[in-house]
Structures are given as structure tokens and as C-alpha cells.
Amino acid sequence: MSVRHALLALLSEGPKYGLQLRQEFEARTGEVWPLNVGQVYTTLQRLERDGFVESDGSDDESPQKGFRITAAGDDELVGWLHTPGDIGAPPRDELVIKVLIALTLPELDVQDVIQVHRRHLIEAMQQYTRLKADADEDDVTLALVIDAELFRLDAAVRWLDAAAARAKRRTRRGAASTTARKSQPSPARRAARSVEVSR
Amino acid sequence: MTAVLELRGVSKTYGTGAAEVHALVDVDLAVGDGELVAIMGPSGSGKSTLLTMAGTLELPTAGEVFIGGQPISGLSRNEQARIRRRSVGYVFQDFNLLAGLTAAENVSLPLELDGVNAKTAHRAALSAMRQLDIEEKADRFPDELSGGERQRVAIARSIVGDRNLLLADEPTGALDSVNGEAVMRMLRNACQAGIAGVVVTHDAQLASWADRVVFLRDGRVVDQTAAPMEPESLLVQGS
């Protein structure tokens, strides 16, 4: 999970204070990633050093210190959202966060972000399937090992399909009520948190 | 590789005015012999319409469909029907076998409808069934076959004779994942033997048997998979 990019996403909506960034980060990631203020400021300092954000120059540790995203920061954020993660390891958490963040950026087409990841997953599935196709049909061990990978990747594709359908439905209904929902934890966010704890 | 099927700038619009639906919008797609292409997309994305156009069952509102390099719109209805009978094989989700005919009679039916004499058609049917390892069930009726065997017979029917284009709409239907995989393996083998195949599915595991996966959204082709790496590269990555 990239705290850096989550903070950039929040700042892409407009200038914000450090404390405000922490609260909004937790609200939008379903509160599954609690952050302390120190983490937020360390990350912001690195982002400033890298030229991705600018501060208003007041006291370093002041909760009233404001930050804004730079053009380089915008590019960095969009690049990260479109970059497929390492699918050698369970990709779901990073995938979920990328799609959740993409949903909050009105100028970005979330369907395009979803499609980049869907294609990447299916290309990996094609490679595994070719291994299975070329193997002896009676080699049950190999088939089962490959199946395990295929089902894992398939689950991520299905989740993306569901995300795409939900995003489309939300677009149709309009995003009028989205802002109001972000400010307080919803039952869905509490459920997401309990699932995370039980993993 | 020759394009057996080509859709060039194909659009299909149903209805008019407020009820107008753009089922396909400016679709380009070429499928060569020996190639299996999967079409994926959510419900209503135009997958089945694309298959209908590819099978010449309907003509596009704009653009052109070519089968074996021949533009379909310039042909008479009879000529279009002849292409459907001789060049195109269909595999359906629910098999569509005729209950009163044996497996071999089901397979030979498209040839007999095209005027081929019964003996020659029966020989061709047995040859197609042999390819799908189902020849020993030639004299059985559909209700004496398992779901997987019925679909094998249906695939044999779709490749019988000199057909060179195979169109399949969710061909694994209600089969379990292992039997579904067997069906995809057969479709892949049939294509590798020199047929162009297009399979419509919402199932990523089945689509991954294809050489190429094309993604549809709102009637448009929005993306497709790249040519796959050699399988060995996976083992290197994983080691």
C-alpha cells in the first residue's frame, strides 16, 4: 500500500492540512489503514523533497501547515494508478486501494484504470493456461498448481468486473451524495475493517 | 496468417429515435486461421451482437464483414446462407442437438442440408467425431450422453466438412470447471488444426485458453491482450 500516492490523490482535490489529510485518508480507505500524524508528515516531507507537493512554508510540525500538489505530483499519481502491481504475490489489497482511490478522482475514468489491471491479470492467466495446455493432461499435480494460480487471478478479475459494474451504476445515478458519505464511516467501511482484521 | 473473418468499421444500431441502441460501434477485428480469439465484456457490451454479425445472421448498419476475404453485404441472401452452411460452425451454450437424431446424425446434418449425400456426410461426421474423441458414441441419442459428451458432439458438428470459422457463444454453458476446460481444450485444438475461432464468454479462465482476448465495452473494442510470452518465462519469474 502506498501512503505516498494516497496522499497525492487527496491533494489532487486541492490544498489540505496534514491533520486533515490523515482523517480523509482513513475515511476513504475504509479505515483499514490507520495512520499516525508522524507518518503523514514524514511522507509529506519526502513528497516535497521529490517535487511532488509544495508547502506554504510555515512551521514544519504545525497542524496548520498547508500542502498542495505540483504538476509532477499529478503525473506521478496518474502513472502509479495505471501501473499493474506485482501479481506474483496476492495482488488484491493494492488493487482494491487503487480502484478505491481512482473512484474518488472525478477527472479520471475509473473504467480505464480497471481495464489496465484486468488485461494484466488475464495475460498472466493466458500464460498459466498455456503451461497447462502444453502439459500432459494426466499430470494432476501440475494442473492443480496452475489451477490455484488461475483461481486466484480469476477472483481478482471477478472483483474488477464487479467494481466496473458498480462504478458504472454510480455514474448513472450521479455522484451527488458521494461527498456526504465520505465524511463519516459507513457500515460498508466498518465491514471492510472487520474482514481485514479476520484475515 | 490469412484473415478468415474480418470486421472492418462495423456498427450495429437497433431501434430509432429515443429507443436507439448502439450495440456495436466502429468495431475492427481480424481472426486468422489457426487462431482462437475470445471476446469478453459485461452484459450488454455487444458480445452476442458481434457474434451475430460474424455469423452473417444480420448485416451491420455500417462497415463490412468479410469471410474468407469476401464482403458479405455484396452477396445475395442465398449466397449468404450458403456461406453459413458451408464455412461457419456454431457452438451454443445449450448444445442445440436434435433429440430424435443420433450423435452422428446430428453431426452430419449441416452437410446433408447442404446437399451432400448421406453416405459422404456420415463419413465426414465420423471423422469430425474422431477428432473430438467421441466416435464411439456415434449411435447414441443426446439423452444417452453426459453434458460434456453432448458438447463434444456439438463441437464436432461445428467443424464437420470444410468449415473454417467456428463461432461459440458461452460454449461451456452449465458444465463444471474441469469439463468446461475440456471443451476449451478441444476448441483450441480444432483451431490449431486450421480453423479460425471466436468464443464469447464472461469467464476469464475460459477466455485464457484463447490466443488473444478482445475486450468490449458499450459496443466498442476498448482493449486486447498482447501476444503471450513463452510459458517458460513464467517459471523463471516464479523461481
Written overview of the protein:
The complex is a heterodimer of chains A (199) and B (239). Chain A has helices at residues 3-11, 18-28, 37-49, 71-81, 92-104, 110-134, 140-173, 178-182, 187-198; strands at residues 16-17, 53-55, 66-69. Chain A has 199 residues and is mainly alpha-helical. Chain A folds into 2 domains: 3-81, Orthogonal Bundle (Arc Repressor Mutant, subunit A), CATH 1.10.10.10; 92-198, no CATH class. Chain A has a 3-stranded antiparallel sheet. In chain B, the strands form 2 sheets. Chain B has a 6-stranded mixed sheet, sandwiched between helices. Chain B has a 4-stranded antiparallel sheet with strand order 2-1-4-5, with helices on one face. Mean pLDDT of chain B is 89; it is low at 235-239. Classes of the chains: A mainly alpha (199), B alpha/beta (239).
